[in-house]
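User: Continuing from earlier, I have the next pair ready.

Assistant: Great, send them over.

User: Here they are, in order.

Assistant: Folding the first of the pair now:
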Amino acid sequence: MLERELRLNAPTEFRLPDLSAGGLDAVAAARRFLDAVYFDTQDLRLARWGCSLRHRTNEGWTVKLPPVVDRELKQRLEVRFEGRWDQIPPEAEALVRSYARRAPLEPIARLRTVRNPVLLIDGLGRRVAEIIDDDVSTYLGQGPAGRFREIEIELAQGTDEEILQHLVASLREAGAGTVTRMSKLARALGTPALRDPDVTPVEPGDDPTVGEVIRAAFARSVWRFIIYMPGVHLGDDPEALHRARVATRRLRSDLRTFGDLLDKGWASSLRDELRWLGGALGTVRDVDVLTLRLDETSRWLLETDDYPLRIMMTALHAEREIRRRALLESLDQDRYFELLDRMVDAANDPLLSPSVDRASRDALLNLARGPFKNLSKTVRELPDEPADPYLHRIRIRAKRVRYAAEAVAPVVGEKAVRFAKAAARLQDALGELQDAVVAHAWLMEAAQDHPAVAFTAGQMAGFELARAEEARRSWQAEWEGLSRRKLRRWM
């Protein structure tokens, strides 16, 4: 469930005003008494990431994942599970493990709330929003720790966000305080919960050291990986899996790019483990890519092809579930948690070589030149009519060029950003070829193995063959754009 909410501080004597306006009716709902126990690590890793895990009496378990903030409105994913308060459901624990890692989860606070809700109903009887007036008493350890008041606005799905302006103005006029992004739990825990999370992506300053550039590059990838892993566990968002996998690939690429400035044994060992993790994520991602592609290609089919298409899609969904179960087993291994700890250490304190203190801006540029030289050499050595595996190798090297340029962009500036975008276009053109080739091969195999889908699969294979041929013709234009001397003069 995706929450859209906004909170305001309020004094203890605050009274809700009449919120009926613009054709809306304000209906007071029954008062509720809530009793929630929150779980976290001793150093509050979940709270510092903006995440929470709680058990509320008569409601069960709730995981709230870190919010995505758009202006003042906060949207966050909330997932609920059944279970008794002293046994964290494994599925709930899995969602927060990327934040907690191997640290044990234990009760850290108890919040007792007197809740007075008011529903806003439109003329058709639909719920537009809910105003929640909470009087919260907090308990830390064995005794009471404090009390505060909070007013929360929750918009129903489909409600226009413009209504927020009216509601906030009315509440502020009645004496409510400022809008706050701080959760109830953070208010209860105080300063320790407001510290930065274990990994914080920080852009280097105007004149960064080489070490600062390396740390910033590593931190960006590790941060992205951690925040997308809950979506990987949930399993219903292919984009979360894609972004988590990209984060592992980018970190591996950066370890390669900065290799001469890192402890070689440390960097090599970490890259090997990231290859294992990326491979585990990739087995599921490959099916997602194929499914999305066949769904797109199916738009060219007739209605008579619906039945064989469903057969093929059902087979893909079944294959994905098998691979997803294998992935989740990998993510429950000590090997994964050890790697996650190492990734966090790399983001905060990478093991640099002694020479890094003497490294200069020119040293970074040399590191970015290397991947481009390898790409140029690979392109020059292509046969006149290169087979697809050769072109796939070009794609891999283009990706390394892009990541290297993005890694040194804090030092080089906009010129490196433009160069990275050109490398991304080459990568995308060759990615289209690779995806078409893979889809064509799968469809041809499906046509041979299942006579009921042979004709439909054959049609779709023909479409993919045409798309692959177009990609083979178009990639060279992208390469010519990337290799222009003007674009890479900064090197």
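And the other member of the pair:
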Amino acid sequence: MASNTQKHRIVTLIPSATEMVCALGLENQLVGRSHECDFPPSVTHLPICTEPKFEVNGTSHEIDTRVKNLLGNALSVYRVFPDVLQDLQPDVIVTQTQCGVCAANLQDVELALDSWLGKRPAIISLQTTDLSGVWNDLQAVALTLKQETQGQKVLNSLQTRMQAITQHANSLNHSPRVACIEWMDPLMAAGNWVPELVEMAGGSSLFGKAGLHAPWITWEALLQADPDIILVLPCGFSLSQIQEHFHTLTSNPEWNQLRAVQMRQVYATDGNQYFNRPGPRLVDSLEILAEIFHPQIFNFHHQGTGWVQVLPK
């Protein structure tokens, strides 16, 4: 239970921030959310303060084209509703500067507040690019909300869980070479904190680098690397959406040449709920990786909800 008696009116415009606020025990102080904030499920009744400016349904290639067209015209990808914010009267808004494609960012919020009436809310802008940055963001949120003690407790708990997995996983002899695919068409490998999670789970990340944005890769590079395991975790795609569009990968004539495909070591993971949310559930993401890399050792019961094995038809 949160120890502080001061009440805030908090709007979170990125799912990881919503999860941080709830982990701090302050869900009852949330008054608004982004269109993507859906965990814990109890937050979904809150007013929605953002929307995308592009059609989110379609193939990877179609979505990529829509987003690039917006960015090419120097337009923001998301819209923040100034009228909704004015009605909600938050005193704290949590947004981000890490990625202009993934969620509404600081510039979008400042634009929405241009005509703000009354005292302007405090703005927390999350900016993590690696795992240590996630913890720094959590502490920044806790500090602004006067929850430093609770924030440290939450942080200690998350890090303790991660350390236990890391120590066990890295004591094993098996260290698979892993390709994490964050977008299917065009191909993109996962970066930022994902390579760190792969290493912590006892694997070796082949493409993206910790602390750097996700890199575009080619089919030639994927073939040359020839990973032992392929993880498919597209940003914004649920497990069912990944499976629906998996033909984007399998239709490429080079797909069946890959060692991971031949050895049936291809997995779809819910990047939308786990890997692409730099918040408390990155610990669950590490658990998912440990289950996949070392199925004889780890079982956190994420199979079927957090990940599925994709078998050739």
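Worth noting for the second one:
The CA atoms of residues 74 and 159 lie 39 Å apart. The first strand starts at residue 10 and ends at 12.
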